[in-house]
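Help!! Second protein's tokens look totally different from the first
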Amino acid sequence: RASSARATDMAVAPAAGAVLRSPSQATAVPTSPAPQPSVAQVESPKAARIPEAAAPQTESRRQPVALAAGPRDAPPQPVERRDGAPAAAPAVPAAQLPAPSRPEAGETPAAAAQPLIEKRLRLETPRARAEYQLRKADAAARAGRTDEAIEALRAALREDAGDALARRKLADTLFGQARADEALAVLREGLSAEPGQAMLALTAARQLAIRGQTAEAIEILAAGTAAGADTPELHGLYAALLQRADRHEQAVAEYRVALRGIPDAAAWWVGLGVSLEALGRAAQAQDSYRRSRETGTLSPELAAFVEGKLGPAR
């Protein structure tokens, strides 16, 4: 029995759209150009500068003339010269170019306001604020600012107590700072609300087992499996702890569930063999030991234990 207990302890460990242009870029091309004046309408360049109060004209010469475009009119279009070649478009004074629209006093342009509105909306929900704090914590941890990372993770949980990732990161950070009691309190708080969170249950049970608090670890894993937590690692740890508590029938069942998920876990095959042997099922125990050897992944200690059960490998 002493060698079986030793194997059990050895088996527990492995289980573990629009572009704005400036005035200098704008072009003075109207959307619907006015009709081009004919040659008869512009007889000479001087005609465009004749004021209306000039001497009376004969009926034949009282044709419309191309007046200079006012500040609010569309710029003049190129006209055809007498020789048939197109004339260059007159230069448009800068004063005639449309100035960019400016918001009224106290009014924010939509283009500038949109990013601000979107950013504000992104942080309106607790989930968004929790994710923001989680990013802050990651940045602080990378920079070695552990206390700042811890505070940011706590802030994330205040925004969203169900954030399992933030809770596990906080617990891991606290464990790393030798603040195990605080870390376990963080894990217990999360599991009391959602016992089926497999990673929280697994982390808490491992730490409790290290501290020798096997009974509480078993309770956490039992509640987790009952709530739907179902990972091979969780079942493997649960089986090892049940075995430590001499609850071999339950341990066998949990080892089999774990091995269906990871068939080549040598330590679990050894653990299964130990519990089967404790229940008096020697033949099944021998088969489990052989399966552990066939994986080729036994640690030196477990390999020696299995050799003691099966004899030297052939």
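Here's the second one for comparison:
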Amino acid sequence: MTATPLTSSPRSRAPSGLAGRCWAAWHPCVVKAALHALETWVSTGTAPAAVARIETTTGDDPHVVRDGDGIAKGGIRTPPVDVPVNTLSGTPGPNPSVICTLFGSTTPLPTGRIAQFYPSRDQYMTKYTAAVDRAVKAGFVLQADRDAMLAYAQPDRVTA
């Protein structure tokens, strides 16, 4: 499998009516990295990087463990998860479409909460860029898709 970068505009990939509710357009970056890792594993025997599973409670009705902003703990960490302006959840949103069921829901964080995380757009971008580089280093995003993942940053959500 040849690693080719994503080329379409990240903000234009959300199907009509789904943007901001259940669509995470950056998923193709992660899927491509996963397929690349799978092919490498099959062809060379080099296993993909191990990652802690998403944390869950125990008992008869287990639930995902979330932080104070509703973001799941553990699992594959991507820049939109580690440098949030939204709560991304695997729980399907109000739209019953198949894509929403697969990709979960997106809920914007309150402006005040975003301001607590990022005093300036520059600080947001510094943190987001570092998260992209960590995701590439961990193998969750291909180097060829680094710029595409950077394009998913939302500095306009930082009002400071």
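Reply: Different proteins will give different token patterns, so don't panic. The CA atoms of residues 17 and 151 lie 21 Å apart.
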